[in-house]
Design brief:
The chain is an alpha+beta fold. The protein is built from seven helices and four strands, in the order ααααβαββαβα. The mean pLDDT is about 90.
Length: about 220
C-alpha cells in the first residue's frame, strides 16, 4: 500500500472543505470497513448517474466538483468515492476496465458502435489489509427505474456489477482491466475516449447545448 493512495491530489482532492464535510456527514464513527460502506452508499445515491453527462471537461473530474454536479457518469463518481475515502483515512485508487453492457439503450450502442464501454471506472479501497473494488456508478433511483439490480457493498468483497438485472437478463460483464491509479489519469483517459467515442462525445455535447438553449 503506497502513501500516494492516502494523499490529496488535483482530482482526488480529499483535503477540500466540501470533501471533508461530506465525509464527516456520512462516514459515521465505526471502523474503516463500516465507514467505507457508508461512504459508498452516500456517493452512489448523492450524485445521480447519467450516461449523457459523458464529456471530457477537465474540472468535472475533480472530486469536490463531482459532489456538486446535477449528475455524472461512472468515472467522476469513482473519483469522488476515492476522495471521501481518503478524507476518512482509507487508502484508495481509481480503477478502469472495459465492460460489456447487455442492456444499454439502442441509441448509445449505435453511437458507440458496439456495446463495449471502454475504461469504465470503479474505486479500489484498502480495507483490512486487502484492496477491495466498489462501483458507485448507478444510484438506487436509477436502478429501480430501469429494473436493474442495485449494487450492494459490504467492505470485504468486490462489488463491481451484478451479471443480471431484476428479470434475469444479462447485464454487465468485465472484459479487460486497465489498472488502478493513485490519481485520475485524465490525459490517458481523455485520449482513449476521443479515439473510441468521438461521435458520442460530439452528439452528447450537442444535446446538452440544445437543452441549455431550451431553458432560456
Amino acid at each position: 500500500m503506497s502513501e500516494d493512495t492516502l494523499k490529496p491530489t488535483h482530482y482526488i482532492n480529499s483535503d477540500h472543505p466540501d470533501i471533508q464535510g461530506f465525509t464527516q456527514d456520512h462516514a459515521g464513527t465505526g471502523d474503516d470497513v463500516s465507514k467505507a460502506v457508508n461512504l459508498y452508499y452516500a456517493v452512489r445515491d448523492a450524485v445521480p448517474y447519467n450516461i449523457y453527462a459523458f464529456a471530457l471537461d477537465e474540472p468535472n473530474f475533480v472530486a469536490s466538483n463531482v459532489l456538486k454536479s446535477e449528475n455524472a457518469f461512472c468515472v467522476p463518481k469513482a473519483v469522488a468515492l476515492a476522495a471521501v475515502a481518503r478524507a476518512a483515512g482509507i487508502p484508495s485508487k481509481v480503477g478502469f476496465a472495459d465492460v460489456r453492457n447487455h442492456i444499454t439503450t439502442p441509441r448509445v450502442t449505435e453511437l458507440m458502435g458496439n456495446d463495449i464501454f471502454r475504461w469504465h471506472a470503479y474505486t479500489a479501497l484498502y480495507l483490512d489489509g486487502n484492496w477491495v473494488k466498489a462501483t458507485p456508478a448507478f444510484d438506487l433511483e436509477l436502478c429501480q427505474r430501469h429494473e436493474m439490480m442495485p449494487l450492494d457493498f459490504n467492505g470485504r468483497d468486490d462489488s463491481i456489477f451484478h451479471p443480471h438485472d431484476t428479470k434475469g437478463r444479462r447485464h454487465m460483464e468485465y472484459l479487460a482491466f486497465h489498472g488502478e491509479f493513485a490519481d485520475m489519469p485524465f490525459e490517458t483517459f481523455a485520449g482513449e475516449m476521443r479515439a473510441s467515442y468521438s461521435r458520442m462525445l460530439e452528439v452528447f455535447a450537442k444535446d446538452r447545448a440544445e437543452r441549455r438553449m431550451s431553458k432560456h
